[in-house]
Amino acid sequence: MAIFRQLSLGAKAALAAGTVFVSMIVSRSYLAGSLELGAWRWLFRLQLALFANSLMLIGSLYIWRSAVSNLSHSPAAESACFQLWKMAVMAFLALAHSSFFTMLFLVAEEPYLFSLAAYSCLGAYVIMVFFLCTLSGMEQAYQLLAWRSGRVVGSLDKTRRLAVRPALAVAVTTVLSVAGLLNAARPPAVKTVRVPIHQLPASMDGLKITLLSDIHLGPTVGRTKMEMFVRMVNRLEPDVTVIVGDLCDSEASVLRTAVAPLGQLHSRLGTYFVTGNHEYYTSDVSNWFALLESLNVRPLHNENVKISATGAQPGGGEGDDWICLAGVDDIEADILHYYGHGMDLVKALGGCSPHHTTILLAHQPLAAKRALQARPDINLILSGHTHAGQIFPLNVAAYLLNPFFAGLYQVAQTTFVYVSPGTAYYGIPMRLGSRAEITELILQRSP
Length: 447
Hints:
By secondary structure, the chain is of the alpha/beta class. It has 15 helices and 13 strands.
């Protein structure tokens, strides 16, 4: 206990995050089977919220120290303006920390204003922490150069820098946050991509596939946006529509009315869905499958359909005039030990001959990479997950952590991977350095 008291607040926050993470593993391993499903879902989300908040405490302490504590000894510290500033920073941090808890209490058909405000503050929090760290690094570099050149940095310069740093960070954060909010509020861009497909049947030359991903119905995305996406897809008159995971962030019963517009999708050869990691975070995949099927959206649960120019057949098409559309469960199901789920490529591609065109739906680019290592004969893999980073500076991390980031990749002469940057956004209603997208893929016959 004495050692714990001697730790800094940042170290205590890191220790708390580690403790919550261990509790998540323990509860997943030993409590999942004994708790009632509803209680288990609530516990899992509470643990996720506590884990995220524990990590955020480190950044919050840094923001408070930079924007408030370092200025408390200045002559203006006793002024009314400074007291208002302290209250504003405190309210900002409180809203940012509350964002993850809205997933527990504030999910409905349409987003609550509080949820939008909380997640907007979370986005601003991410940007501010990054720029405060950047400015601090630049200051350290300046001091090093001054020391090497023999200059002495005066106390006046130091006081001025302590005031300028948070002011500059707030200004940059405000500008970028507003830009991100306005960008995310726009309808997704419609991008047309032509993909040459080896062995594509002549009758299916020009087949149009509309790709949706990462809609994230939940605290900040609701029915209104879903209705807009459906209208935009229907205007494209697709042959096939596919949704490659992360459709939802809460239980099917809570979001039933929000997802209902999917039933108005018009795709001549069907609409298909595969799970993403967030479906497994809801612990409600079976109910989501049932709800989607009632909306004429077919989940591909490690399975495939044979699609011809006239329709889709689970068992296979007659002759050679068909393509194989397969889908795998998200790899997160294996990590979470989600019963009855997990990526099973062999099962998903059962009956998909190398002599026919094969298209695979796999939420994460890492799953796409694993699939190509096992079956390099796959012609096209459609993925999402990365959001193209969604907001700066997360773009850099998303780029480094995924084998495919966004857009079309030609992996081999007859093999392509397309990664959607997402149709909406996750939680934070911002897009900075990325744009939401509905993708129209036109398959073109290639020798």
